[in-house]
Amino acid sequence: SPYGKIPENWLLSTLDSVSNLYTGNSINATEKKKYFSGVDGVNYIATKDVNFDSTINYDNGIRIPDRYLSKFKISYSNSVLLCLEGGSAGRKIGLLEQDVCFGNKLCSLSFYYGENKWLYYFLQSPQFLSDFQESKSGIIGGVSIKNLGNITISLPPQKEQKCTSSKVEKLFEKVNQLWK
């Protein structure tokens, strides 16, 4: 295992076995301007809206009205969005605070059973980032959904996921206070 010896009660699996992962939809510039700019609907998130500090710009002016929703994939609140392609691949990541439609260079990930906040932190771990980099291919430098799904993940029980996520969050809060 790339993780060395893991506790007996942890599961070693692949991302596609323990999480739902799928990419979004692209919108061409003409359609974006004509049908999706300045209208009411579900916010549409593109790679540019996911920042390197993991914040997400929901209010970018692009929304998907109800009548077009059936043509778009939705990533639900508390899911993780991860950039799969280009210079931001593996580096742009965010935990959603609302349901959104999203671009085709982004992947939505959510555990079938588990704490998505733990998944969010795992996807920023050195081991995952190393595996992600090794899975990159092509001129643009991207990771296919298939290769992403084949990446190994070590999973503690859900109670441990929750506890670890909470501790990591508190540590980040302290770090952020030091930067102020």
From TrEMBL:
Record-linked InterPro entries: Restrct_endonuc_typeI_TRD, Restrct_endonuc_typeI_TRD_sf, Type-I_RE_S_subunit
Boundaries of every Type I restriction modification DNA specificity domain copy: 7-173
Protein keywords: DNA-binding, Endonuclease, Hydrolase, Nuclease, Restriction system
A GO BP annotation: DNA restriction-modification system
Domain of life: Bacteria
UniProt xrefs under Gene3D superfamilies: DNA methylase specificity domains
Single GO MF annotation: endonuclease activity
CDD domains the record matches: RMtype1_S_TRD-CR_like (cd16961)
SUBUNIT field: The methyltransferase is composed of M and S polypeptides.
Record family assignment: Belongs to the type-I restriction system S methylase family.
Protein name per UniProt: Restriction endonuclease subunit S
Lineage of the organism: Bacteria, Bacillati, Bacillota, Bacilli, Lactobacillales
